[in-house]
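Each record in this resource describes a single protein on a pair of labelled lines. An example record follows, reproduced without changes.
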Amino acid sequence: MKLIKKYKNALPLAYIFLLIVGTLYTRQVLASNSVEVRTKQKDEKNITEIKPVKVYLDIGQVFSKKMDSSNTFLDLMENLCSDGLLKYEITEYTYGSRFEHINYVYPQDGYEWSLFIDNKKYDGELSGLALVDKTTYGLDITRIEEHQ
């Protein structure tokens, strides 16, 4: 208690001193150009050419759409939705995506909407699935497979 009373008048001065030192140090650090900036060389191998693609979506009714190779499957779905040709709802989970309904057709319990690419079931992530020219993407209701 006596210690606090003894240094009570010195505390504001110490606070002001620390403020000044902190301000000067911060300005000095910001003024120094110690960060080296390097420009990244373009890697010629990683440049992908954007080409027009014609894809088909089969959900019992076949839709044909011309897009480009930079688009994804979900871009195709959004494009058909914005044209008023398709309605869907998708739910994103940590383990992947799941269609809740397509054109208000809901799967029964134990079933789900599955994506097929040229009649082969696709179990990967939908968000990064790039469109490929002359490919048919199909959506059909299938039984949920139990993983053991």
The mean pLDDT is 85.
